Amino acid sequence: MASSEVTKLQQHLALLKEEYGKLQSHCAEVERKYTLAAASAGDLSETSFVARLLMTVATLYGRETYSDITIKLQSKSMPGHKFVLNARSDDWNEEALKDLEELDWTSLPDDIGAALLKWLYTDVVDLSRGDSFALQLMKSAASFKLHGLVGKCEQALIASVGVRSCVKFYSAADEIGASALKEHCSGLISAHWDDLTGEDFAHMSSALLYRMLKSKTSQPLHGAVRLLREDVVFLCLVENHANVSTRMLYTVDHAGPLCLCLCEELCYAYEKYYVDNQMPTLCDEK
């Protein structure tokens, strides 16, 4: 494909992502209005109880009025309201908050804590600050069981995920149970499996990568060697120690190369494992 055609496709994709982001924002606003309509039995007038209650909560953001708790951020302390916290998460139920005068959020980055607090009151969050921000906010929201905010972050990340970031997002989604993002990233990983390298998986835990290899390849040991993940190679050998054979180790996979012959360093690591466990080695059969 000509370079100009690739550039055009990249520009088109960028435009599509921009439009998708706009649609997500619009969808979030429609969802908010629908929730309001359903709760107020179709009455969207500003005089309805539910509408007035939501507007009142929004106006309490950052104000001392009715405040009965303080939220301590890295750069400042903000007035909070226990009934708002209670309504947002089971972690902040009456029993959990009754003796508290302050919630310490100083472990959160300042922009994350501020965005999280604003969402609690207004249901509004700015996710245009980049993937790293959305990813960190999603993790923080999950830690407080703020499922609504997790969902919004998921949708933003789904809109922006690419081949180089899908593994990173998959790991984060698996960690917090963000099923929609995890499923989307899993599809991307499957579609681009042969394009991904060991560098893409470098941050992924050995247990998670081993589970992925077993689900996406017929030869997980070959996959672990191709990605240069000695820790995953050992997991595979330990799990299959009773069935390890020359045939298993030197079977040709769909990509062609022989398993342990792909990497001499891992071959010797394999040999060391079997020597340590007083089992016969196979590396000298190469």
From TrEMBL:
BTB domain boundaries: 67-129
SMART domains per the UniProt record, alphabetical: BTB
InterPro entries from the UniProt entry: ANFY1_BTB_POZ, ANKFY1_BACK, BTB-POZ/Galectin-3-binding, BTB/POZ_dom, SKP1/BTB/POZ_sf
Pfam families recorded: BTB
Protein name in the entry: BTB domain-containing protein
Organism: Heliothis virescens (Tobacco budworm moth)
